[in-house]
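Tokens as discussed.
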């Protein structure tokens, strides 16, 4: 029986963020090259997106390529960029028909021009969709995002004193402006790190580490992560008794 049936549909997170990790190791275990793992990873993205839509969860953010990933061998980086581009072009109608709105965070300018073009086309085509807001983090670094937000904020706001700077104001300068913070962050492949991903936004997120490598992640693994999330008590600094009183 699917774990889907055990989920409390009234207690679902609104936003799930995923660090898709383990493609290379998964392929190596099968005696294949790393690229094969990335290609299989696309299938996991499709399964995850379908499950998220089935649950009516409105926001999904996927860490597809970090700013640090540029340090990988040039050949792997080139293959990944081509894979991003071909996946985006081939799936444009698929995403559009499923009413998915695609946006990106990260330094889009770092990507090859053709890849930027495909992404911009996809974002334009899907901009009025509202079933799922799918954000792709590409050439993304959370520290860079926060640093740039501070620079932009000081340039535009020109505060007379530092007290004018608030958490809400800084949030509004982040690339995730308008997107609620994720309640659940999933990382696959057994690694227990957040790797410079959404550092500000995950302040109160539940962290779930799956032992599965990303190409083995599927609908059931997602349901399992949400099931675990629903068992946790999210106190936001309060006590258990306070929370009980609030409910009663
Ligand atoms: C991490 O595995 C995975 C990546 C760096 C790339 C993930 C990208 C995809 C699955 C394709 C996404 C496509 C679109 C269009 C968004 P790893 O290579 O770090 O694996 P390892 O830790 O085993 O080496």
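Sequence:
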């Amino acid at each position: 029986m699917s774990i889907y049936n055990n989920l409390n549909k009234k207690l679902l997170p609104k936003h799930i963020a995923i660090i898709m990790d383990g493609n290379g190791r998964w392929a190596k275990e099968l005696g294949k090259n790393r690229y094969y793992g990335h290609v299989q990873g696309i299938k996991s993205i499709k399964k995850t997106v379908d499950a998220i839509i089935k649950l009516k969860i409105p926001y999904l953010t996927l860490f597809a390529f970090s700013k640090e990933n540029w340090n990988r061998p040039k050949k792997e980086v080139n293959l990944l960029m081509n894979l991003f581009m071909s996946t985006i072009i081939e799936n444009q109608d698929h995403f559009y028909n499923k009413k998915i709105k695609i946006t990106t965070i990260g330094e889009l300018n770092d990507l090859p021009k053709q890849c930027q073009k495909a992404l911009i086309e996809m974002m334009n085509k899907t901009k009025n969709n509202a079933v799922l807001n799918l954000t792709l983090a590409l050439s993304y670094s959370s520290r860079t995002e926060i640093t740039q937000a501070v620079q932009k904020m000081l340039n535009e706001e020109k505060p007379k004193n530092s007290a004018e700077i608030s958490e809400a104001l800084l949030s509004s300068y982040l690339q995730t402006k308008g997107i609620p913070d994720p309640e659940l962050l999933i990382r696959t492949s057994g690694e227990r790190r957040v790797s410079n991903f959404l550092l500000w936004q995950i302040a109160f997120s539940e962290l779930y580490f799956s032992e599965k490598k990303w190409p083995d992640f599927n609908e059931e693994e997602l349901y399992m992560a949400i099931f675990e999330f629903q068992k946790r008590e999210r106190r936001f600094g309060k006590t258990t008794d306070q929370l009980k009183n609030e409910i009663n």
